């Protein structure tokens, strides 16, 4: 493979558990699973781009087990459970060892599919174990959660992300100044996958060329922030709602955090704004249509800006 043309996000993906950065407490447990060549049903949850899928694949690979990988955002109905998943789960492995089914983005499984999965997990646990990944643990029914050992996969800190980007650019022989990639980290944090992809997009020849304005206009979150800061904008809600609609946003976790981090530039009453954000963020975890909850948050924030 031509290294110059390879995707950084794939080229620098960990190949072994000890190459995985962060979540040291989780790594200790996983190292023990690998040592014993056994693991319970697992639920790995946390924000996008934090390495849940990579970690699941590393575990199965190092155990040396047969596996079935399914992206539940594409195959999420009950028929997938009844046919594809059930067929693999109930079949014997070549070496009579444990098999694993990785259900990536399991929070996209329909309620019926999750219900069907519940009994299957119990009946095949002697030969097959499941690893579910999810951005939202709350979207997994309690009957599945209770059958799994759950781990929250936390994002790396910004300094750790910067160190990772520094390593990639040095390895690739790219000329850069550290301050050049700071805007990218700030824009896409904590999604390491997006950060790495954006870094590669900004490499021209053997130099990192970052256009902060382009980043700002390509990231709806930064545009929302600019609208909130703009004292002259009279139709803030209309503009922000259009940005959300046009970008088909489904996850607002980063947006809540970004607004919170920049409150001093947005309002003279950050205390009241924090209470609003906290309440709407809590509601976000309970509702299906998160867009309505976020827009309600904007309406309330505009009353104190």
Question: How would you portray this structure in words?
Answer:
- With 305 residues, this protein is an alpha/beta fold.
- 54% of the residues lie in helices and 10% in strands.
- The chain contains 16 helices and seven strands.
- A five-stranded parallel beta sheet has the order 2-3-4-1-5.
- Helix 10 packs across helix 11 and helix 12 (236-246) runs antiparallel to helix 16 (290-302).
Summarize the model shown.
By secondary structure, the chain is of the alpha/beta class. The chain contains 16 helices and seven strands.
State the secondary-structure class.
Answer: alpha/beta
Shape: globular
Strand arrangement in the largest pleated sheet: 2-3-4-1-5
* Extended strand count: 7
Give the percentage of residues in beta strands: 5-15%
Q: Write the CATH fold name of the largest domain.
A: Rossmann fold
Order of helices and strands: HHEHEHEHEHEHHHEEHHHHHHH
Label the CATH architecture of the largest domain.
3-Layer(aba) Sandwich
What are the main properties of this structure?
single chain; 305 residues; alpha/beta; Rossmann fold; Helicase, Ruva Protein, domain 3; 3 domains; 5-stranded parallel sheet; two-stranded antiparallel sheet; 16 helices; 7 strands
């Amino acid at each position: 493979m031509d290294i110059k043309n390879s995707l950084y996000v794939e080229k620098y993906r960990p190949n072994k558990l000890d190459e995985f950065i962060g979540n040291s407490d989780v790594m200790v447990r996983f190292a023990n699973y690998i040592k014993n060549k056994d693991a319970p049903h697992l639920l790995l949850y946390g924000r996008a781009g934090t390495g849940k899928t990579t970690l699941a694949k590393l575990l199965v690979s190092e155990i040396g087990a047969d596996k079935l990988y399914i992206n539940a955002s594409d195959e999420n109905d009950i028929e997938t459970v009844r046919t594809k998943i059930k067929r693999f789960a109930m079949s014997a492995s070549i070496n009579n060892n444990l098999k694993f089914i990785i259900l990536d983005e399991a929070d996209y499984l329909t309620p019926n599919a999750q219900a069907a999965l519940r009994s299957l997990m119990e009946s095949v646990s002697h030969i097959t174990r499941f690893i579910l990944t999810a951005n939202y643990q709350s979207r997994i029914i309690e009957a599945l959660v209770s059958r799994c050992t759950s781990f929250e996969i936390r994002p790396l800190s910004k300094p750790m992300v910067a160190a990772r980007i520094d390593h990639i650019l040095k390895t690739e022989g790219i000329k850069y100044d550290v301050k050049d990639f700071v805007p990218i980290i700030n824009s896409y944090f904590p999604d390491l996958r997006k950060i790495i992809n954006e870094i590669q997009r900004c490499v021209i020849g053997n130099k990192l060329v970052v256009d902060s304005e382009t980043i700002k206009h390509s990231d709806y979150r930064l545009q929302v922030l600019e609208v909130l800061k703009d004292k002259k904008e009279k139709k803030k809600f209309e503009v922000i709602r259009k940005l959300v609609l046009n970008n088909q946003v489904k996850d607002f976790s980063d947006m809540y955090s970004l607004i919170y981090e920049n409150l001093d530039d947005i309002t003279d009453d950050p205390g009241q704004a924090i209470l609003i954000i906290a309440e709407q963020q809590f509601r976000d975890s309970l509702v299906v249509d998160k867009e309505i909850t976020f827009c309600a948050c904007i309406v309330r924030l505009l009353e104190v800006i």
